Amino acid sequence: MSDKLQSTPATAFALPDIASLTLRGRDCIAFVQAQFMSDVAALGDGQWQWSGWLTPKGRVIALFAVLRHSAEQLDLIVLDADVNALATSLKRYVFRSKVSIEVPDDLSASGRFAVPSIAQGATAAIGTTGIELDVGTTAAPRTLVLGQAASGIAHDAEAQLRWRAFDIAHGLPRLDADQREQWTPQQLSLERLRAFSVAKGCYPGQEIVARTHFLGQAKRGLAVLRSAAGAAPGDDVRAGEQALGKVVSVAGDLALAVLPLERPGAPLQIGAIDAVDAPLLDGLAR
User: Fold this and answer.
1) pLDDT tens digits for 163-209?
2) Which of 124, 118, 114, 45 is nearest to 77 (CA)?
3) C-beta separation of 103 from 84 below 8 A
4) Alpha-carbon distance 23 to 37, whole Å?
5) Structure-derived torsion over alpha carbons of residues 88, 109, 173, 135, reported in degrees to the nearest 10
6) Has residue 219 been placed in a domain?
7) CATH code of the domain containing 119
8) Which helix (H) or strand (E) holds 31?
């Protein structure tokens, strides 16, 4: 921890599709433990993990990182979703719990392709000037910062695309609006990120997730495909005339698709475009 985060050498750029909301109150840990799919109660102060919120049928509504400040404060660092709508939806389940849910209006997300100055792995750096997370790997470091909007932060479309492609290559789904509430955690291979628990107790969708896990019924998972630009989320992935699955996320010539874990070795197409398997990289689990 540090009161002031030191700068990292790489140029920072804005990440407008990442935002945050804050939960405060004596019941905030119990509230999120009963709502989200990861074991938030296992976090220590200053630690974070990947998590998400599911429908009762076990489909992913939103993906985010959960950061614990203390027993009475958590941040959700939300990927791609409308945080105001997410906050409104969560508030419906507060009932008599002592927890408030707020969207900070003075924080924005930025990224750097550089080693974090302080944060490491699942331990964040929380300072008066912002929050720093290590969202890279040993071989390919990245730093995510949540802080007050600064005039010097570039809106670099090329860097933003590179950031998204990194996520896709490492199996972190980026869910556009039409891909939400479509997929189970196992179909999105979120066990690779340790983003859900089958042992912590009840939460929306938990029965579906646990049954799939303990009965060994997961038949589909993520694959990274490389093709000429033009694929879109929701596109079919085919082997000849057979539809095998669908594209979930894209970035440039990379596509993240849900496909059978056992599938034919026939050539693949996304629409009419040839596609080939690319490595599904590790290193983002926390």
Assistant:
1) 999 999 999 999 999 999 999 999 999 999 999 999 999 999 999 99
2) 124
3) yes
4) 16
5) -130
6) no
7) 3.30.1360.120
8) helix 28-35
